[in-house]
Design goal:
Bound molecules: zinc ion
Number of helices: 14
Radius of gyration: 23 Å
Protein name: Lactate dehydrogenase
Strand order of the largest sheet: 8-7-6-12-13-16-15-14
Distance between the termini: 78 Å
Oligomer: single chain
Largest sheet: 8 strands, mixed
Organism: Photobacterium marinum
Helix content: 25-40%
Structural class: alpha+beta
Length: 495
């Protein structure tokens, strides 16, 4: 007698986490786009060298993710971001990471601890103190420390000049970072409150470009002013016992990555010169990845950090956009400019799926030659379908300098507008300036295996960049967004 066929695990999508199911066809023009009906896919788990999920309609094979792990990553980013800030830190609580400063209605003032304000969470009743309320007695020394850091002094030099030991240097640095996060959280909230129409620029690059340590840095800013609204890295300071070598989206905790074995990888051919050839070469590179949405899966060798744990980058990138999506509750029209990277494309498309369907979002790949004059009108436009996905690119050029855009939401007709205004260079420049500013620290041989020391610096740099640094027109990004009337001084930043 034939046994009745029941659902085995092999024919199921990785389970949803609450309402979150990120495993679905990601081809916008496909009738299965966004579908979470397993009958729309061929699913298999027996051969790890073949895709787990293939769309029956369009044949696309988006890698699968563990939905619980994506949400756990969102929680990790929140805890990091609110670390040191007065906010509920109970991972089970819905107020997790929402700072008192911007969410007063969620908390009761609850007496004092010394001269510091104490609060109680209305949701879970947990109490905590605002460590940074009251006067900053260390403002002077912290200002000196920052000034030296920003002039490119080494840690050793700074310690000698301020007569402190390295431990107190890093303690000070992490206190400064907390204050910076506190300042930023108030400005960020104001920015998003008035962001009915918003253009964001994102980029994803190694945190330490000469280290091959697998730490990847995603950052997004308001595209015109350069105000950085969020940045995250796929690395956590604390070790993880049961990190896994292989990614298995059906197992919780799979986002934690064990040190991988060295891989045999073909030496990539040199990057071609012309923009069309470059875009084409990138499509080939991503297709050669064992996991299309994991740029690290194609690295021959990772110099795994000596302490702490790498997180598979797709989890951090999806979490980055989920984090932004939460802040965008007042937003009605959104553009996102990204470099040609399928991980960022997939994350944007999945996280903002409803808005893609409602056509209130414009995600675009943007590639431009160095020397492209931002804001100039497009010349003649050539449309080219590229890559396995037949992505619809629009290219233009002035003399020998070219630019290409690809509307990932599938909209046609506004190519000239996007070629003129779409660009992610504000965020790419921000990341490059960070690397230049702190080249000593970023490239220090010892630091390459100990990236944790750079984490407070990222928060400090973001605050300084948004609130203190004036561009050629004399304005800070916060001023350009109408959030402040003048640049903040270091003293104000630290108070
Ligand atoms: Zn499909
Ligand atoms: Zn709570």
């Amino acid at each position: 007698m034939k046994t009745l066929h029941t659902d085995c695990n092999d024919s199921l999508l990785p389970p949803a986490s609450g309402n979150l199911q990120l495993n679905h066809c990601k081809t916008i023009g496909c009738c299965n786009f966004g579908s979470t009906d397993k009958h729309h896919y061929v699913l298999q788990r027996t051969n790890p060298h073949r895709p787990t999920l293939v769309c029956r309609e369009c044949g696309a094979f988006p890698p699968v993710l563990n939905n619980n792990d994506v949400l756990a990553e969102v929680a990790r980013l929140k805890i990091m971001q609110s670390s040191g800030l007065p906010a509920c830190s109970n991972p089970e609580c819905e107020n997790l990471g929402l700072p008192v400063l911007t969410h007063r209605h969620l908390y009761h003032a609850f007496g004092y601890s010394g001269d510091r304000q104490r609060y109680r969470c209305k949701c879970c009743q947990a109490t905590f103190v605002d460590r940074w309320s009251g006067f900053n007695g260390k403002n002077q020394i912290q200002q000196k420390l920052l000034a030296l850091l920003f002039t490119g002094c080494s840690v050793r030099d700074i310690c000698r000049r301020l007569s402190m030991n390295p431990k107190s240097f890093y303690d000070q640095l992490s206190q400064i970072a907390s204050r910076c996060r506190r300042q930023l959280s108030m400005f960020d909230a104001r920015l998003f409150k008035h962001a009915q129409t918003l253009s964001l620029a994102s980029d994803l690059i190694p945190l330490q470009p000469n280290s091959s340590n697998g730490v990847t840095w995603i950052a997004s800013c308001e595209a015109a002013s350069g105000y950085v609204v969020g940045q995250h890295v796929n690395f956590q300071q604390s070790d993880v016992e049961d990190a896994s070598e292989e990614h298995d989206a059906y197992v919780d905790g799979t986002r934690f990555m064990a040190p991988p074995k060295a891989r045999l990888v073909e030496v990539p051919p040199p990057t071609p010169q012309g923009i069309l050839a470059r875009v084409d070469a990138k499509y080939r590179e991503v297709l050669s990845r064992p996991n299309l949405e994991d740029p690290l899966s194609n690295m021959p060798r990772i110099n795994y950090p000596a302490k702490g744990c790498l997180i598979r980058p797709q989890y951090t990138v999806y979490a980055h956009y989920l984090h932004l999506a939460e802040m965008l509750e007042y937003n009605e029209s959104l553009a996102i400019f990204i470099p040609q990277e399928p991980l960022m494309r997939s994350a944007c498309i999945s996280v903002f799926m409803d808005r893609i369907k409602a056509k209130t979002i414009h995600p675009l790949y943007v590639e431009e030659d160095m020397g492209w004059l931002h804001g100039q009108a497009a010349g003649r436009i050539d449309i080219v379908l590229m890559g396995w996905w037949r992505d619809r690119w629009a290219f233009t050029r002035h003399d020998d300098i070219s630019k290409g855009v690809c509307h990932l939401g599938g909209e046609k007709g506004d190519e000239d507008k996007w070629l003129e205004i779409a660009s992610h260079r504000t965020i790419s420049d921000y990341q490059k300036r960070f690397h230049d500013q702190f080249a000593q620290l970023v490239d220090e041989p010892r630091r390459k295996l100990r990236p944790a020391g750079l984490l407070p610096l990222l928060d400090i740099y973001r605050a300084w960049h948004n609130l203190c640094r004036q561009d050629r027109s004399g304005l800070t990004p916060a001023q350009q967004m109408g959030l402040t009337s003048a640049p903040l001084t270091l003293e104000q930043l630290l108070s």
